[in-house]
């Protein structure tokens, strides 16, 4: 059985041959023209202006829709190998309308909780749990399966993930407590105060517009992790907005240094010479795992 280090190193070697789709000059010109017609919203307007299906169609229709998603989906399975083989409670914090994290952790996490700030996203997550989703995750499942070499069908992958889902939570990383309410939960489920693992991808910097707000967002995320537990974080560096469909949203221009500073300030391991921290960066996209110090 290969170690987590060997798996990540193997994926990094494979990344050298991975063709990340890059925009052609004419596509860049088209994108610039499109931005002139898109409405620019503040980060705090996600609750009222976010359109889940437009977002999913823009970034997840196929695994090649977006270079950032190619990076995250490529490295996520390898990063997850650094987690304990069995996880009692896992929270996907600020999942938006996405379910690729529950699908990826379906064999490791027994109780999976998902969450978002925007009601429209919580409704989309709930519809997927009930197998009523308007979006087809088949292509993303096939991409995850190709990295895992699991030989499971998309239906099997989603079925197991759904069986592990426990609740959809209303969250706000700028408030205490971060979990503000329960949008949906299965019968007999108690909501933990802290989790063994918290995952958060394209969330903390997208929820913020300033470094101070990002610091608060990281503090909120880390408050949900048990001592000795883990944070799996993915995001974008050096970007001040993101766009899809007819919408653009402002975000904090995050740096690599800020990522590590904020983790360290909240009692998280940032020493890459230990087994408690690993960060991978490519094309200004990062994914990391950090263990909360005891």
From TrEMBL:
Cited SUPFAM superfamilies: S-adenosyl-L-methionine-dependent methyltransferases
Organism of this sequence: Acrobeloides nanus
One Pfam family from the record: NNMT_PNMT_TEMT
Example of a GO MF term: N-methyltransferase activity
Similarity section: Belongs to the class I-like SAM-binding methyltransferase superfamily. NNMT/PNMT/TEMT family.
GO BP annotations, alphabetical order: methylation
Entry keyword S-adenosyl-L-methionine: yes
Binding site for S-adenosyl-L-methionine: 55, 60, 94-95, 100, 116, 121
Name of this chain's protein: Uncharacterized protein
Keywords, comma-separated and alphabetical: Methyltransferase, S-adenosyl-L-methionine, Transferase
GO cellular component, one term: cytosol
InterPro entries to which the protein is assigned, alphabetical: NNMT_TEMT_trans (IPR000940), SAM-dependent_MTases_sf (IPR029063)
Family matches, as PROSITE patterns: SAM_MT_NNMT_PNMT_TEMT
């Amino acid at each position: 059985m290969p170690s987590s280090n060997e798996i990540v190193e193997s994926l990094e070697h494979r990344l050298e041959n991975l063709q990340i789709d890059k925009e052609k000059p004419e596509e860049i010109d088209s994108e610039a023209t499109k931005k002139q017609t898109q409405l620019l919203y503040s980060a705090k307007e996600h609750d009222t202006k976010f359109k889940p299906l437009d977002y999913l169609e823009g970034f997840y229709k196929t695994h090649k829709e977006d270079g950032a998603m190619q990076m995250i989906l490529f490295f996520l399975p390898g990063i997850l190998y650094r987690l304990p083989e069995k996880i009692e409670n896992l929270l996907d914090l600020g999942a938006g309308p996405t379910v690729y994290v529950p699908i990826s952790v379906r064999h490791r996490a027994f109780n999976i909780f998902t969450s978002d700030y925007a009601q429209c996203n919580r409704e989309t997550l709930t519809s997927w749990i009930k197998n009523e989703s308007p979006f087809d995750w088949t292509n993303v499942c096939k991409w995850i399966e190709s990295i895992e070499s699991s030989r499971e069908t998309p239906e099997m992958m989603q079925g197991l993930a759904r069986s592990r889902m426990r609740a959809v939570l209303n969250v706000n990383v700028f408030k205490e407590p971060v979990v503000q309410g329960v949008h949906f939960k299965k019968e007999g489920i108690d909501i933990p105060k802290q989790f063994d693992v918290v995952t958060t991808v394209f969330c903390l910097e997208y929820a913020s517009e300033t470094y101070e707000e990002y610091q608060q967002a990281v503090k909120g995320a880390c408050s949900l992790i048990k001592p000795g537990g883990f944070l799996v974080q993915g995001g974008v560096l050096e970007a001040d907005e993101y766009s899809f469909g007819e919408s653009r949203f402002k975000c904090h221009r995050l740096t690599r240094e800020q990522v590590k500073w904020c983790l360290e300030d909240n009692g998280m391991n940032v020493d890459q010479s230990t087994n408690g921290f690993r960060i991978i960066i490519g094309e200004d996209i990062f994914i990391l795992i950090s263990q909360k110090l005891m």
